[in-house]
Amino acid sequence: MTHSATTWRFPAIFWTANSVELLERAAFYGMYISLALYLSRVVGFTDIEAGWIGAGYSALIYFFPMIVGAISDRIGFRAALMLAFALLGLGYAGLGFFPTKLLVIVSLFLVSVGGAFIKPLITGTVAKSSDTVNRARAYSLFYMVVNIGSFTGKTIAKPVRVSLGLEYIPLYSAGACFLALLVVAFFYWPKKADHDERPRSIGETLRGMWEALTNFRFLSLILITAGFWMIQGQLYASMPKYVLRMVGEAASPEWYANVNPLVVVSLVVPITHLVRKLRPVTSIGIAMAIIPFSALTMSLSSLLSGNVNVAGWSVHPITVMMVIGIASQGLAECFLSPRYYEFASRQAPKGQEGLYLGYAHLNTFFAWFIGFVLSGYLLDAFCPEPTTLSPDVQALYQTALAGKGTMPAAYAHAHYIWYAFFGVGMLAFIALLVFRTVTDRMDRKKESVGEAATP
User: Domain 12-383+414-444, CATH 1.20.1250.20 — does that match?
Assistant: First the structure.
């Protein structure tokens, strides 16, 4: 694009990329919201084992982009997208048809490789099909599509889990990915100029990697925003098990989690417009200030006695506080994600958008690896799988779920899980304040010697 005026109009490839992103996100989140339950209930892993496996899988999805981003720049976005969706479809199909411990790990590896391609490819396409004036708008549209896909996937996951079983959810995900493969094959045609921008040699690619890793601001913000995503990732690591164990099997953690994309889809465009004149780090700072209190809100159900009347409905206190906490996470995302992607894309030399936007996802690599592992241990300590308890304690637990008694001692401090993540969020916010202070001082020093400050 060469327009210098602000616009919401983008080329066809932008919309094709967003269409396949919607399908991939629907597939991913449909399976992801069910992953912790699937690993424990279908495959037979313990909470701690499931935490480590979920951590490895989640982290690889966000680690591999720094490798495959460079590959994508070299082989071309179209070929890389087709490879990605083929791997995703095979991986999800493997989860559905072969739910044994070894084959599940192999299948998750295939999904992680395929998913790693998608991250830099789609965000790179958004960068290539927008100019600097309209890039924030392009990313706000992209992020809205991401959350429509997230909402769709989790909405479908609940009836599939209840009516068919957890093992059928990955088959739905496989179907969505194979459909996306067809869309790419017939409709995704980058301009020749995009191919001309790809690095020409391994040396150039390695130099680009070095530039990304030695960019102080970029790397620092990756590490700081990992704190944000460690909390947000608990929608998938801790929340489904926590809700089903504390509220009962009739609860709908998939639909609780949908509050997040619903808020994002509704608010990301107007909020991006509202903060368009703020520096990216300022908008990110607003998000980092909100996110720890979302975790604190989730812990507060312990202060409520009995169900809460909401518009004439009797609602479990955990449901009420979960929905409020998840909604605040969605609000925080609206301030963070579009501006963060914009920040990352501005760091990239021309032709290396895929590489840099691959590195941009390293924040989630750190966040979800640490977050899933921590989740497994916290669940085991404060909100254990009921079947691991003695028969007497299980009887007390079932009585409490029926509303005829209090939860046994094993669940008395289940809300401590959310205190831990509140602490994580506060540390990340303080780190961002330090980052802002240091970088502002660096900019003032550059200005004082006549150098232009970094945007």
Answer: yes
